[in-house]
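Quick one from the shared queue. A colleague (R.T.) flagged Gamma-glutamylcyclotransferase family protein as missing a structural entry in our internal table.

Convert sequence to structure tokens.
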Amino acid sequence: MQSLIDQNDAVFLGTHVTLHSYPLVCRPNCIPYLINLFGSGHRVKGEFYSVSTRGLGRLDELEGTALGHYEWLPIQTQVEAEAEAYYAHRSFREELWEKNGREGLSEYTEREASGFVRREDRLKDRSFVDEDRPKELFSLLML
């Protein structure tokens, strides 16, 4: 996000909490996934950004939306604003929630982020749903 901010493709608008409860889990490589299972998990605290069209394209590439890792869906926060968030793709969300023992986080903190494995350091032969790593990004993005 800092790169997008530096290039005027994103503006940090603050920290917000979801209006409703959602699971937030971190499984493989300590990558966080917000799961679109309304009413499960916790109200989640996350960062709120305004992002340019160019910035959104870069985020979609990073988040693997074309590969089916995440999908954009609306989200409501305590602050009234039209917003969307990256959610774990529907094709594996239930499995991800189950593999995490139906336990989620209320926010992604530096403690959880410390276990994040960079893309180039990840094992290539493992499914990102099957890999077991410690728990942990959730950003709310406003268009």
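The radius of gyration is 14 Å.
The chain has a mean pLDDT of 83.
Added to the table.
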